Amino acid sequence: MNNLQNRANAVMAFSISAIFCLLAAIALSALVIPASPSGSIALDSIKVVTGRYDKNWVDFKTQDNEFANTLMQIDADLSSLFHWNTKQLFVYAIAEYSTPTHPKNQIFLWDTIIKSKSDAVLRKKGIVNKYSLIDVNKKWTNVHATISLHWNVVPYVGFMTYGRSQASEAYAFPLPSGSQT
Amino acid sequence: MNLRQILTNTLNVLMMLFGVFMSYKAWGLYTNCESPLVVVLSGSMEPAFARGDILFLNNPKKPIEIGEIPVFKIPNRDIPIVHRVIDRHDSENGNQVLLTKGDNNDVDDRIFIYRELHSNRNMMWVEPQHIVGRVQGFLQYLGMFTIFMTDYPMLKYALLGAIALIAFIYE
Which stretches are transmembrane (chain B) (predicted)? Predict the structure, then answer.
């Protein structure tokens, strides 16, 4: 039965399976393409102030919540993460610390989206934290935090993958010096 | 076309539909996720995810990492949200609290998403019981089919009708 309907059906079925095989191959290739990203990150200063509202005007109800303000520098080369199946990099700097009530805490300090290989070399100084740095217990007493640079590779098709730099030395949070204006 | 043929064809169509449904449910069991495929409806995670992209989810028991993208349901809100984790705090007994934000939004989700409903006006964190899945994989555009079908329900009936018609005409 070589009528038009059969032929059209065969062409459709074959092209759909071919496209999905190709997509699967591209998705898997992203897992084996070698990359050598490097990054380092360090804090230049930390200051702690007390206040009632965070950067987004969320009300923490009392005046004595401790918010930290940091300045940091980033030196990273992530250009090797760009290959044919990289849509974008989501790069984020985090602080990591533990407290008596919460053994593991991680907080975003800063993030950026990188869409092309030519933008994937980061040399930045004097970065102010973009997000409010407040602990779940709202105090920074006796806390030591390390910071690190992380990245999420978002593909055109396939698997989300993650990577990170080594953690920095541990920084101690100082006592509050002043209140929010 | 006799009765026997009509019944056989009906059975074949139903077999196909239930086969797809069963594989989807089996996949859900494997990934521990009630709906392992979701379609992105809003642009709040652009440029990573755009409206109409398909996300593949799973929901393992291990704690959520920072920077991961969970799908969560806020109490009393119907539509689940896909946003990135920007804070995590793990307590001693293993309970987690998380703060999320859409990559394309200027602020985190507290004021406009968690607290959008008056009944949640003090909600500070997303907790593991709100989480219905975690994004593992990604496929562009194909979800536009389901968006079209929800936007124009006639299209859905037309498609179902076409499948039925083909199954009957095409022996």
Answer: 6-24, 154-170
How far B93 CA sits from the closest chain A CA (Å)? 9
Is B83 noted as a catalytic residue in this protein?
yes
pLDDT in tens, B107-147: 999 989 999 898 988 899 999 999 999 999 999 988 888 88
pTM: 0.89
Active-site residue identified among B42, B44, B90, B119: B44
Question: What is the CATH T-level fold of the domain A35-172, as seen in this structure?
Answer: Immunoglobulin-like (2.60.40)
Q: Structural domain boundaries of chain A?
A: 1-32, 35-172
Q: Which of A94, A108, A129 to mutate to test the interface with B (most CBs of B within 10 A)?
A: A108
Question: Whole-angstrom Cα distance, residue A126 to residue A171?
Answer: 17
B108, A56: Cβ pair inside 8 Å?
A: yes
- Encoding tokens for residue B52? 């109409």
Minimal Cβ distance to B47: which of A5, A113, A131? A113
Q: Residue B91: what residue type?
A: S
